[in-house]
Design a protein that fits this description.
Layout: H1 3-8, H2 11-19, H3 25-39, E1 46-49, H4 51-66, E2 78-82, H5 109-116, E3 120-125, E4 137-138, E5 142-143, E6 145-146, E7 149-153, H6 159-167, E8 172-177, H7 183-189, E9 192-195, E10 214-219, H8 222-232, E11 263-266, H9 277-292, E12 296-299, H10 308-320, H11 327-330, H12 336-344, H13 350-370, E13 376-380, H14 413-417, E14 421-428, E15 434-440, H15 446-459
Parallel strand pairs: 2-3, 2-8, 11-12, 11-13
Antiparallel strand pairs: 1-3, 4-5, 6-7, 8-10, 9-10, 9-14, 13-15, 14-15
Length: 469
């Protein structure tokens, strides 16, 4: 088996091979470290990388294995952590000069769980400043490049994780999603990304953005995300929103996954979104695959769809006001788009916020009522394929000081409503750029989304296609 094989091997195959001593944790880690050394900083997926510590931990895992003391479902597997997540043994700088050198003294709960399951962190993956935008660039770390095309957007605040997964930096990568930041990099980078139901994975420190941020896996295969979910999900006392339900054996429940007979809604634009023609065609073809697999697919225009744009623009800017305190000292070192976004909300009042929140709650209720009639909803994951990462908007879209949401209208509704949603690769444009199909399920039906994704993966596989870097 070559080093490249080891770098792209799914965790569901690699884990039993390590336990059976068919391959060693050190061999796996060294192959990945060699690949990272060769490709970084060309891709620039890491905000912080500690290959020496990762290799030491792999050697310790190999010693445990020799003693018969291997423990945990992810034993010996490399994993990356997004640089918005708190880590006690690695800096957490959040893509901002304001946080440069910040070293927490503890791990977030899901990081603790990954380590307890035997996973070995490689480092922290890049994020936009404080995770504010859908473009893979920050003032602190610069551009993270799409592995499929250097210089192009790898997508949203989990871009480093998406790029790392696509580039073969191991099988398991953690992302977070406040308006699409797991699903958007998955779309741009040609991988699988799952935003679970809100609270399925504990999120600490608890964000002050009205319960829209979700933690989720980013992997090359659906089963790897299911495996990761078995480890990181479940209640935790530090997050009072975390769901009480224990982790489910997701991987085992993917066997024989089928969508036959399911009521599936397909919406090409949610009644309002502009979509580039090449993306629209590939997403529609993905919806046709569901029909071919026996689902009852119906094209719909949800009545709630056109209400979303005003809501997201109000709340996205309002929640960035938490960074307003930094403007006097740090404005010139902050992302100009973030500054513009903050300043656009400067005149919002508490009464404005409460009134908009009433509207938001009505919008969320309408989404849940919609799912009384459908088992799944399909949409494009994003309106555009990857575009230059030094731009906030694609060249043929209207410029705006901060409103990148124009090309990302499909993801945020389900952050507000807490529904599980995934992006699955559904093809490539004529320029060879990946496109994702979004699969949304009713709230708490994470398994249904994983099973539908697995069925689609079996019918239209993608993981064997890798970028030439």
């Amino acid at each position: 088996m070559t080093d490249e094989d080891l770098c792209f091997l799914p965790a569901t195959l690699l884990a039993p091979m390590i336990r059976a001593k068919q391959v060693s944790p050190v061999e796996v880690m060294q192959a990945i470290l060699n690949r990272v050394e060769r490709l970084e900083p060309k891709i620039n997926a890491f905000a912080y990388f500690d290959g020496d510590r990762a290799l030491d931990r792999a050697k310790a895992a190999e010693s445990q294995l020799a003693r018969g003391a291997a423990q945990g479902a992810l034993f010996g597997l490399p994993v990356t952590i997004k640089d918005l997540a708190v880590t006690g043994d690695m800096p957490t700088e959040r893509g901002s000069w304001i946080e440069k050198g910040n070293q927490p003294d503890t791990d977030a709960p899901f990081v603790q769980r990954l380590k307890m399951a035997g996973a070995i962190p490689l480092g922290k993956t890049t994020t936009s400043e404080f995770g504010w935008k859908g473009v893979s660039q920050s003032p602190l770390t610069g551009i993270t490049h799409n592995p499929w095309a250097h210089g192009l957007n790898a997508g949203a605040s989990s871009a480093g994780a998406g790029a790392a997964a696509a580039a073969g930096y191991g099988p398991l990568h953690q992302g977070s999603d406040g308006a699409g930041s797991v699903r958007m990099p998955a779309h741009f980078c040609g991988i699988f990304g799952l935003k679970p139901s809100f609270g399925r994975v504990p999120n600490w420190p608890v964000p002050s953005n009205d319960q829209t941020s979700h933690i989720g896996p980013m992997t090359r295969t659906v089963a790897d995300s299911a495996l990761m979910m078995e480890t990181i999900s479940g209640p935790h006392p530090w997050d009072h929103y975390s769901l009480e339900s224990p982790p489910s054996p997701y991987v085992r429940k993917l066997d024989g996954a089928s969508v036959k007979g399911l009521r599936v809604a397909w919406s090409p634009n949610l009644g309002h979104a502009r979509v580039d023609p090449d993306v629209a065609a590939l997403a529609e073809a993905g919806a046709k695959v569901f029909e071919d697999m026996g689902a009852r697919v119906e094209e719909v225009t949800p009545s709630w769809g056109p209400q979303g744009p005003e809501l997201i623009r109000f709340f996205w800017a309002a929640h960035e006001l938490g960074y307003q305190k930094f403007l006097p000292e740090w404005r010139n070192k902050m992302d100009p788009g973030l500054v513009a976004c903050i300043e656009s909300a400067a005149n919002h009042s508490a009464a404005d916020y409460v009134a908009m929140r009433v509207r938001k709650l009505s919008y969320v209720e309408a989404i849940h009522r919609f799912f009384e009639d459908y088992d799944l909803l399909l949409t494009p994951a994003v309106s555009v394929a990857a575009f230059p990462a030094d731009r906030l908007m694609p060249e043929d879209w209207p410029d705006h000081p901060w409103d990148w949401v124009q090309w990302a209208e499909f993801s945020y509704p389900f952050n507000m409503s807490h529904n599980p949603a995934a992006s699955v690769p559904c093809g490539f444009t004529e320029k060879g750029l990946p496109v994702g199909l979004q699969i949304v399920g009713p709230r708490m039906r994470d398994l249904a989304v994983l099973q539908a994704s697995a069925a689609f993966e079996a019918a239209s596989p993608w993981a064997d296609r890798v970028p030439e870097i």
